[in-house]
Amino acid sequence: MSLKAKDYKSGIKPIWCPGCGHYSVLNAITKAMAARELATHETAIISGIGCSSRLPAYVSSYGFHGVHGRGLPLATGLKVARPDLEVVAVGGDGDGFSIGGNHFLHACRRNVDIVYIAMDNEVYGMTKGQASPTSPETWLDGKLTPHGTEVRAFQPCAIALASGAGFIARGYSGDPNGLAQLIFEGMAFPGFAFIHVLSQCVTFVPEQTAWKQQVHSVESLPDTAAEAAALMHADDGFAKGILYRNPRPVWPRPHAQAAATDPRAEFEL
């Protein structure tokens, strides 16, 4: 009997703030799992530390809540040891691009067949509102940076492309069905799939409610890495959809053939 999205949720109630975008990301992940027709024992959700990294507790699957910035190496090790599992790493902008930034670069280039979902709210929410690597340099409400960070914001998708990721997409928590489609395609992609999710934190950055009017769809999928790079560097940060898709050999090589599936498989909610 096929499972529905609700069957992939655990009995633990999320404790995110009201209005947090992570609720929708959780819904999108379970919708993608249901569309992939995965048994709960065939999936593992791995995380580091942060608001978003609580997510493994809310999914009825194998899971591991690791230490700060170390979700990707944990997910990598698990996939290499258990290539039969669908391994999804989740985290936030601080966890993934600050203390975990080095692991992010090497996960992209290593190309193990896992999905990495980075929920980006441009703030350290769990520690009550400090600027993160992706905070705009002019954001004046950070408790440690009242004059703004005065540092250019980290560009996750462009960095992923430069580091060798073969699947790069951006979703928006306010579009859970569209995000579920991206996660589904990332799971089907043979190799490392990076999904950058704009997931608002209305508690510490209430102006992010305007994201709903700012997001827009990618017009077309670039054919080459050079075209994707031009798109990402000209991007306003709100283009959603698949930004780049180009399969290459999965590491470790003996597992590539067994793990590879058709990235164009049909998605149904």
Walk me through what this model shows:
The chain is an alpha/beta fold. Helix content is 31%, strand content 16%. The protein is built from 9 helices and 8 strands. It has helices at 22-35, 71-81, 93-99, 101-110, 156-163, 176-188, 211-214, 225-234, 253-259; strands at residues 43-47, 62-65, 86-92, 115-120, 167-172, 193-198, 216-217, 239-245. An 8-stranded mixed sheet has the order 2-1-3-4-6-5-8-7, sandwiched between helices. Strand 7 (216-217), helix 8 and strand 8 (239-245) form a beta-alpha-beta unit. Helix 1 packs across helix 6. It is globular, with a radius of gyration of 17 Å.
Short recap of the structure:
The protein is of the alpha/beta class and 269 residues long.
Structure characteristics:
16% strand; single chain; 8 strands; eight-stranded mixed beta sheet; 9 helices; alpha/beta; 269 residues
Map the helices and strands.
Elements: H1 22-35, E1 43-47, E2 62-65, H2 71-81, E3 86-92, H3 93-99, H4 101-110, E4 115-120, H5 156-163, E5 167-172, H6 176-188, E6 193-198, H7 211-214, E7 216-217, H8 225-234, E8 239-245, H9 253-259
Parallel strand pairs: 1-2, 1-3, 3-4, 4-6, 5-6, 7-8
Antiparallel strand pairs: 5-8
Helix pairs in contact: 1-6, 3-4, 4-5, 5-8
Sequence of secondary-structure elements: HEEHEHHEHEHEHEHEH
The radius of gyration computed from the alpha-carbon positions, rounded to a whole number of angstroms, is: 17 Å
Number of strands: 8
What is the terminal separation in angstroms? 16 Å
Q: Strand count, sense and closure of the main sheet?
A: 8 strands, mixed
Specify the helix fraction band.
25-40%
Structural class: alpha/beta
Rough outline: globular
Strand order in the largest sheet: 2-1-3-4-6-5-8-7
Give the overall pLDDT as a whole number: 92
Report the portion of residues in β strands. 15-25%
* Count of helical regions: 9
Which residues sit in consecutive blocks of at least 5 with pLDDT less than 50? 255-260
